[in-house]
Amino acid sequence: MADMLDKPNFENRLRQLARSKKNEFGDLLDYDVEKEIREFDETYREQLRPFIVDGIDMICTAQDKNKQILVEGANALMLDIGTTTGRMRRCGYLDMVILRHSHSINHYTHLNLTKLDVLDTFKEIKVAVAYHSKNDDGTTTTYRNRFPADLRALDKDRLEVEYVTLKGWMTDITGCRDWEKLPSEARNYVQFVVKDLKVPVKWIGVGPASDAMIEVPAQRTTKDINGERS
């Protein structure tokens, strides 16, 4: 919805969409995109402006004030394709901004931290902890707990990601089935996530096999929420 307030970007994307549909449907598509843009400019943009907000921030504020909220269930937050495509198991660095954003919506009680073994060969492991995005007026907006509602904030020429660097464990953990047998660096990585999010990790995936899973004793990561070390 935020795209509607960015006139040049909105019009460009609508024209691209119209061309794509025209190529797909030919003369069956009777649609005047320029007329649509004019009508939207003259009437709808300003009518809609007061109702275009960061919905996540609005809901979280309402929750903090104990207001009643009517919820419609949906599939998932920031839903992706999944892991059934046959591609290689790979992943990027953990993004705590997205994880905090997700937690503020879903209120997790426990985490399942998957694919920890993908990081076995890294000497150093980065964790994204903030986004710094340049605005058109030269100022910078920092995102720590919310994913930007306006995706232009993520443009490469605007965005700088802030990372924390942790020490890697440089050893194969696919055979581990016990929390205590994980390398200390791997446990430190898990504890970093727990302490930041204040949600315990209950399961850790350490390989592609169906049994490649560690169930973490409740007291281990819960201590990190309280500022203790396990």
SSE topology:
Layout: H1 7-25, H2 33-48, H3 55-64, E1 94-95, H4 96-106, E2 111-113, E3 124-134, E4 140-143, E5 159-167, H5 184-197, E6 201-205, E7 213-215, H6 218-225
Parallel strand pairs: 1-3, 2-6
Antiparallel strand pairs: 3-4, 3-5, 6-7
Helix pairs in contact: 1-2, 5-6
Task: Outline the structure in words.
Strand 6 (201-205) and strand 7 form a beta hairpin. The chain has helices spanning 7-25, 33-48, 55-64, 96-106, 184-197, 218-225, and strands spanning 94-95, 111-113, 124-134, 140-143, 159-167, 201-205, 213-215. It is an alpha/beta fold and 230 residues long. The longest helix is centred in the first third of the chain and has 19 residues, at 7-25.
Largest sheet: 4 strands, mixed
Mean residue pLDDT: 87
Number of strands: 7
Radius of gyration: 23 Å
The helix content, as a percent range, equals 25-40%
Uncertain segments of ≥5 residues (pLDDT<50)?
A: none
Category by helix and strand content: alpha/beta
**Mass-distribution shape:** elongated
**Residue fraction in strands:** 15-25%
What is the string of helix and strand elements? HHHEHEEEEHEEH
